[in-house]
Write a structure and sequence with these properties.
The complex is a heterodimer of chains A (877) and B (85). With 877 residues, chain A is mainly α. Helix content of chain A is 60%, strand content 6%. Chain B is an all-alpha fold. In chain B, α1 packs antiparallel against α2 and α1 crosses α4. The chains are: A mainly alpha (877), B mainly alpha (85). Chains A and B meet through α1, α15, α16 and α17 of A and α2, α3 and α4 of B.
Chain lengths: 877, 85
């Protein structure tokens, strides 16, 4: 049994320390603070105000609800600073609880607080420590059952909204709290205990630094208040800078993995994938900055992690709080147990425990935030490789003393070159390893890396040259630093004045640069760049992936929670729990062929809060006879969810409005009636339109077939076909089979692999699909037409439209141009909901109007007979 | 030299020898932060604890390997003294 520090003696020391802290705190009481530091508080408040304006102007982490909190943060900071010390912690707690209510709503907020209090209460039950641990584990298992959907609850938002936030607050902190509670020397106040769990920024940032309980307590107003507040705004500013840099990379620099074709592309992909971590460091800076505003003088969470020079150095610099957490709960306890086998065995064993634990705990964290417990090969490889290198590095360091310095060392070219070489090498290695971690599978990562083989020796030579140049730059920077130059705006421990100057100038630059009047003056790419940085959105690849996830959810109920939390964590407004996919409400059925699924006939359900009915033929439409009535003009409409009318009522779809208008406004028509048959099904791609056309559309005798295309369809065609092929459908079309063979794609293959292989054949697939629909139209004497319809907030690109037009003209499609339909409107006013980009009733009305105009414009080609004068102009397809 | 002073000297000597070779001993004071100041990392903390256990015949527990007990030479001396009773 080891000796622990004498408790009485410890209590004496801590009581002394506490008295010292108290003294400094009371010295910094309101009146004396105002007298001594009034100008400093004013300066911090001013910077904070400016910074919060910047956050609004750039929509910083808006989807996480951070902007809801800005008034609370600003007013809370002022009030907190003015309150006497003894009221500050209770005030912080109340503010944090209020924030939970603001972001989650009253019911969910109260539920979260109640469950949280229950968990904290279990830690303090007057039973043995072991019993408390068992009770907490049981409670955790019950909550996990709810989160994972294994235990059912009538409260729909509990597992999908309340529990992820509860998890973010308690999943690690509860373990630290319990550990420290066991060894607690200085009893904590109720406010300290509760504030630790319900920290103000946690409600917005689910991925939260694992704040240590002792550090949380120890650093509370541990020095003069004004510098802590100033540190807070500076760190928040740093957070904003990191988050904007992240956006720059995410929107503009990260390549589409499917389009990577050379060493340059591979390097760009690996580099940008690693740099995306700026979002995490940005969020963590923001979180700790906000905490500092309320007196929690917490240490930094990251320390120049791109400049790590060894594996251990990297582990110590990136996510420092995580490292400390693992050291405290895993490393030291394991090491103390294992050291009877010798120090080397203990070091190796404890380090392996830490990395194994890190791997499992990352999946555990994923479970609470997103509802699944992934244990993937890239995850295991990443942590295994990193852990292995850290073990080797630790053994090396244990044998050879790592030199520390308390004073600056003299400049040496050799040492600078070695450090620079190690730093560049480490950065490059982590880029490669990180890309493996970020890949959906090892096979996809290998496929990506193998693209480098397409480049010649000169490309590799150029890469080596670039790395050597980086080493040289590193040496120069070290030399300049040794001569007194500084390459950071603030340095590691800036003075109040310098920190305030950097924050003020930085926020003003961002604020002024973000004003439309300013960047509109500049115009061109710079204006487009600033505008993009001011918006929080998904990039094109992720828009496609998000849709793919959503569409996969159509047929798979279990995917819903994942899809919902992907939305929550991935960066758009959270969808409510009743916002279910077609598959989840049982509106679809499998077909077993290349169509994959269709709508069940005779449905009358609520879909995304709107009435959704289907006719006896499984169309989202009113009922029609299969045979076309006498003297009637029929249009068959093909498309996906935007045409089907996701989120709007039956009579609000543009198809319904268009049909009404054709029948009411065409008084002089040569037809008695017009019918627009809606064959669209949410999630259907080109191959599904082809199958539908082959099997059903022409049985209804249409005069025209209008296929509605959207931006991104060139890529979507590939991803949806890949998704269908995983179901191993019956493939009958010889031309498609030949195409798949050429691409070396086989039914049943993994969707990700299929996508990779089909990507180069996108144009051929479209040619195949357009050709099939055109041939069927010709065979049935029907006019084929293509409508180019934008998505709300996503316009066609010129190159994309040129490609589609070219292919459509070859097959003699009539082109209906709806591209400008949303352009003069605020996109937000056209979305069916903040979390769902499908058009709302107004959007559908606009589409109906525009499509009507386009039909009139092409009346002669389509043979619509809308005006008697034009009868003579009718042409056959 | 009192016991306290000899303990301080032995600890300082070990830290200088193991972690700060070639540095000026005057730079390392009784209140120089060792962990928060970056002089001690996890491995060197383990080495230091092994030395303290050997030298002073005390036993450390896992939860004591942190800034509360080991951040300065003064704290280390205090920790050892309280363990020795």
């Amino acid at each position: 049994m080891g000796q622990s520090v004498n408790t009485k003696e410890s209590a004496r020391v801590f009581a002394t320390e506490e008295r010292e802290t108290e003294r400094s705190l009371h010295a910094a009481g309101f009146l004396s603070e105002v007298r001594a530091n009034g100008s400093k508080f004013l300066a911090v408040a001013l910077q904070l105000g400016l910074l919060l304006l910047v956050m609004h102007a750039y929509q910083v982490e808006q989807s996480f609800g951070l902007l809801y909190l800005t008034p609370l943060i600003f007013a809370g900071f002022i009030i907190n600073a003015l309150l006497p010390l003894r009221y500050r912690l209770p005030f912080f707690l109340l503010l944090s609880l209020a924030a939970i209510g603001v972001v989650l709503g009253l019911k969910q907020g109260l539920g979260l607080i109640a469950v949280g209090l229950g968990l904290i209460g279990l830690c303090h039950l007057p039973v043995s420590f072991k019993v408390r641990v068992v009770l907490l584990l049981s409670a955790g298992a019950f909550l996990a059952g709810l989160r994972g959907g294994w235990i059912e609850t009538s409260w729909a938002s509990l597992p999908t909204l309340v529990l992820p936030v509860l998890g973010a607050m308690f999943m690690f902190r509860l373990a630290i709290y319990l550990y420290d509670l066991r060894h607690e020397k200085r009893p904590a106040s109720l406010w300290e205990r509760l504030s630790y769990f319900f920290m103000l920024p946690n409600i917005c940032f689910l991925l939260f630094p694992v704040v240590d309980y002792q550090t949380f307590r120890r650093t509370y107003y541990d020095s003069e208040a004004a510098p802590i507040y100033q540190k807070g705004v500076l760190w928040m500013f740093r957070g904003v800078v990191h988050l904007l840099l992240y956006r720059l990379i995410y929107y503009h620099l990260i390549p589409n993995p499917l389009e990577v074709a050379s060493l340059g592309g591979v390097v760009q992909s690996m580099l940008t994938t690693y740099l995306l971590y700026l979002r995490i460091s940005g969020q963590f800076h923001m979180i700790i900055g906000i905490m500092c505003l309320f007196g929690f003088n917490l240490p930094e969470t990251h320390h120049l992690y791109f400049l790590a020079s060894s594996f251990n150095d990297y582990w110590r610099r990136i996510n420092i709080y995580w490292k400390d957490f693992m050291m405290k709960l895993f490393y030291y306890p394991s090491l103390m147990q294992l050291r009877r086998w010798g120090m080397t065995a203990a070091l190796v064993g404890a380090t392996l425990v830490v990395f194994f634990g890190t791997w499992i705990l990352h999946s555990y964290q994923w479970f609470w935030l997103r509802g699944t417990f992934p244990l993937t090969a890239p995850d295991a490889l990443f942590w295994g490789i990193l852990g292995g290198f850290v073990v080797v590095n630790s053994l090396y360091e244990a044998r050879r003393t790592r030199k520390r310095v308390v004073k600056k060392k003299a400049w040496s070219v050799r040492e600078a070159a070695i450090l620079s070489l190690k730093t560049v090498g480490m950065f490059s290695f982590i880029c490669v390893l990180w890309s493996l971690w970020s890949s959906p599978s090892v096979a996809e990562w290998v496929a990506l890396v193998s693209k480098a083989g397409n480049s010649g020796a000169s490309a590799f030579g150029l890469l080596l040259l670039a790395l050597a140049a980086l080493v040289g730059v590193g040496v120069l920077i070290q030399y300049a630093t040794s001569r007194g130059w500084s390459f950071t705006a603030t340095g590691s421990n800036p003075s109040f004045r310098r920190s305030a100057l950097v924050t003020s100038v930085g926020t003003l630059v961002l604020l002024v640069g973000g004003l439309p009047q300013v960047h509109e003056q500049v115009g061109g790419p710079a204006q487009a760049l600033v505008t993009s940085l001011q918006q929080e959105q998904l990039n094109r690849q992720d828009e496609l992936q998000a849709e793919q996830g959503y569409y996969e959810g159509l047929l798979n109920v279990e995917n819903y929670t994942l899809a919902l939390m992907r939305t929550r964590v991935g960066g758009t407004m959270p969808a409510p729990a009743d916002w279910l996919g077609l598959g989840e409400i049982g509106a679809t059925r499998k077909t077993g062929d290349l169509q994959g699924y269709d709508l069940r006939p005779m449905l009358d359900v609520e879909f995304k809060r709107a009435r959704f009915r289907t006719n006896r033929w499984g169309m989202r439409d009113q009922d029609y006879e299969k045979g076309k009535p006498e003297n009637t003009y029929r249009i068959a409409l093909l498309g996906s969810s935007h045409v089907m009318g996701s989120g709007v009522a039956d009579e609000e779809t543009f198809q319904w409005i268009l049909e009404d208008r054709l029948n009411h406004e065409s008084q002089r028509s040569r037809f008695d009636a017009y019918e627009v048959l809606n064959f669209a099904v949410g999630g259907h791609g080109l191959h599904q339109q082809v199958t539908l056309s082959e099997k059903r559309v022409f049985q209804f005798g249409p005069d025209a077939v209008v296929y509605v295309l959207h931006p991104g369809d060139l890529d979507r065609i590939v991803s949806r076909l890949a998704a269908t092929l995983t179901e191993n459908p019956a493939l009958e079309d010889p031309s498609l089979l030949a195409l798949l063979q050429q691409a070396e794609v086989f039914p049943g293959m993994k969707a990700s692999q299929t996508k990779q292989r089909l990507h180069p054949f996108r144009q051929d697939l479209i040619k195949w699909g357009f050709g099939k629909i055109a041939a069927l139209c010709k065979e049935h004497n029907v006019i084929p037409a293509l409508a180019f319809m934008p998505l709300v907030g996503w316009e066609f690109e010129e190159q994309e439209i040129a490609q589609l037009r070219e292919l459509a003209r070859t097959e003699r499609f009539v082109l209906l141009d709806l591209r400008e339909v949303y352009q003069s409107h605020d996109y937000q006013a056209l979305r069916v909901a903040a979390w769902d980009g499908h058009p709302n009733p107004l959007g559908h009305r606009l589409v109906a109007d525009r499509l009507y105009q386009e039909l009139l414009r092409n009346e002669a080609l389509l043979g619509l007979g809308l005006s008697a004068e034009q009868d003579s102009m009718l042409t056959s397809p | 030299m009192t016991t306290n002073q000899s303990e301080r000297a032995a600890i300082k000597d070990f830290i200088m020898r193991e972690f700060l070779p070639g540095e000026d001993p005057a730079e390392l004071e009784a209140d120089t932060p060792l962990i928060t100041g970056g002089i001690l990392d996890s491995i060197s903390t383990v080495k230091l604890v092994a030395f303290l256990e050997d030298r002073f015949g005390v036993r450390f527990q896992a939860h004591e390997m942190n800034v509360d007990y080991l951040n300065t030479i003064s704290k280390i001396v205090h920790t050892i003294e309280s363990k020795q009773g």
